[in-house]
Amino acid sequence: MKVSDNRAISVMELFRKELEGPYSKEEIETFLFYSLNEYAGFSRSDMALKKETRFSESELLKFFRVIRKLKQYVPIQYILGHTEFYGLKLRVNESVLISRPETEELVEWIVSDVTSSVVEKQSFNILDIGTGSGCIAIALKKNISQAKVSALDISEKALELAKQNARENNVEIQFIHGDILNTLTHEHLNTLTPDLIVSNPPYIAESEKSNMNRNVLDHEPHTALFVPDNNPLLFYRIILDFAKEKLYSKGKVYFELNNKYADDVAALARSKGFVNCIIKKDLSGNERMFRCEKNE
């Protein structure tokens, strides 16, 4: 891989030439901005104003590496090693999912609900099930200062990264290694009586794999994505059972959803005695969030 010279404009032309085909023009421009911002501190306006900036050989090698990885369909967030979530900078790698905008919308819904209501208890306990990078737990702790936040995940590698993200964002969170599908984990969580449970669980049916982009399918952790075709509500069912037993009276459960199963999740929650069930659309108009309340 070669550039005609070491100017920024030449790097830009190389990105556009090498990535044309696998990616749209809009995607290429996004990758280009992220890379120039990461390795040269460019703002979006700098991409037009600093085209004659010259890069060192070591800087050029970093740009070449990004292009090679992108041609292998590695997500740009994994290449750079971090992502932005709800105003926070979080480390990511292939042991955790890359957070999506709809997950930020779920956090915004929770923050708005909690901060607009009067919390009479001296402490307010939140449990995040399937925390991954820790994005939800960390964002909630940052924005709901009185909350005591616990976060569960089956992956020890994910928890290691989540702990690092918590340290770097100066929040204290209790991280727990366990599998919510395992009753032994439920027993381990006996000391917790949360006021609020939140989860972005695996919700994509195995049969949907053929419709997914390679950057997701080849690189993001399948254990955090997929459920059996014959049991798409597996995690919702188990978490609702756990919530029915563990939540404080009037405690709430929040889920991110596969919009194909939004009505099914709501029906499931009602069948287990939960009330005030609300399905919420994301900014794209898809039914991607859900809230219900324990009726006790």
How does this structure look, described?
With 296 residues, this protein is α/β, with parallel strands linked by helices. It starts with 7 loop residues before the first helix and ends with a strand. β10 and β11 form a beta hairpin. The longest helix is centred in the N-terminal third of the chain and has 16 residues. 42% of the residues lie in helices and 18% in strands. The protein has two domains: 65 residues; 198 residues, Rossmann fold (3-Layer(aba) Sandwich).
Summarize the structure.
The chain has 296 residues and is of the alpha/beta class. Helix content is 42%, strand content 18%.
Q: Roughly what is the average pLDDT, rounded to an integer?
A: 93
Q: Write down the CATH topology of the largest domain.
A: Rossmann fold
What is the molecular shape? Answer: elongated
Distance between the termini: 65 Å
Helix and strand sequence? HHHHHEEHEHEHEHEEHEHEHEE
Which CATH top level class of the largest domain fits? Alpha Beta
Radius of gyration, whole Å: 21 Å
Number of strands: 11
The assigned CATH architecture of the largest domain is: 3-Layer(aba) Sandwich
Percentage of helical residues?
Answer: 40-55%
Strand order of the largest sheet: 5-4-3-6-9-11-10
Give the biggest sheet.
Answer: 7 strands, mixed
CATH superfamily of the largest domain: Vaccinia Virus protein VP39
Ranges where pLDDT stays below 50 over 5 or more residues in a row are none
What structural class do helix, strand and pairing data support?
alpha/beta
